[in-house]
Amino acid sequence: MDTTTLCIPLAHIQTYFDLRKSIIAQVDWLEKRSQLKFHNPHELLELIIGLNPEQFYQKAGIDYRTNVSHCFISVEQCLSLVDQAISALEMPYLGLAMGNLMTISHHGMAGVAAVTQPNLGRCLETISRFCHELFPPLAMMPRVEGKEGIFAMTENISLAPYSHFFYELNMVSFYNIFLHLVGGEHELSCVDFSYPEPAWGHIYRRYFRCPVRFNQAETCLRGSASLEFYELPLANRLMAMSAEKTLFENIPTRAIRLLPLRLRRLLLRYYGAFPSLEQAASDLGMSGRTLRRKLAEDGTTYQQELDQVREKLAKEYFYRGGTSITQLSIMLGFADSSAFAKAFRRWTGLAPTAFLEQQQMSDISN
């Protein structure tokens, strides 16, 4: 899968750019909701809710048709849409504003299915699964580490130069949904962004009640691990099942058929004892020969996918405070620490010790 792979359902992307479903057409409301003042609010409102859809999509090379349900677009086309919107509005921080305007209802059946789960942990797992199907370039991963709960976001495919747009939109949107679900009972400990603070960094802090940190190990929301079992006020098992069924009946997906992504997810489950190519192929329901051929058709190999997973896990190990290179080498299936160090230097351009020192210095400065 690369930036030209048609893998993103257009019907899902339309929820980003057709905010008419959730915006009240009043300038005062817009300014209050987005917490921003605009030089020409009437024009901005019209631009946000009234961009000519035919021209908007055509400029991105998308065959736009109303209510299209089986159309998929690529990362390149999606980034073209973002570029058009940011340029038209002259708002580099558009992701923040759009994320704050999006409500649970704006996420449609995906939102309903998520917020009707029995607890917050299941809600985040549902969001993670939906992200894999509806927007495979981005991955969302909930996890618990000791007393801390983390909901992290990362890119499967580079979304540069607009990575920040997708992180801003999703972080603000999910933060607001969190507040809606838990009310005033709890607050997150902080929100982290893995990139340097942009020129509009001060605007970030208008949207979060908790500390905002940049240049962090990963982009994520952080809070108490106990929130995993927080019972959601809208919990309804039958409604959750019905909403998910309706969602995927109306928005077909392709991510489940993207073999490199399926393989990576499989390898992540084997952390500490990675399978052979033949075993992985068997788990994926095919022969080793077929797996090799299909991966080659996607421009990759089993070893390249395994290395991507190993690199990801190695970095996460250091980000989370791990320091034993020998232990990490064993967990990642290397013969010895020397072999691991050689591979790590190939992935990152740094020796593991240098990367670890860099991470420790970053922790101290923050």
TrEMBL record:
Regions annotated as coiled coil: none
Stretches assigned to the HTH araC/xylS-type domain: 253-358
Alphabetized UniProt keyword annotations: DNA-binding, Transcription, Transcription regulation
Classification via InterPro entries: AraC-type_N, Homeodomain-like_sf, HTH_AraC
Pfam families per UniProt: Arabinose_bd (PF12625), HTH_18 (PF12833)
GO CC field: cytosol
GO molecular function annotation: DNA-binding transcription factor activity; transcription cis-regulatory region binding
Signal sequence, start to end: none
PANTHER family: HTH-TYPE TRANSCRIPTIONAL REGULATOR GADX, HTH-TYPE TRANSCRIPTIONAL REGULATOR VQSM
Protein name stated in the entry: AraC family transcriptional regulator
Organism, scientific name: Agitococcus lubricus
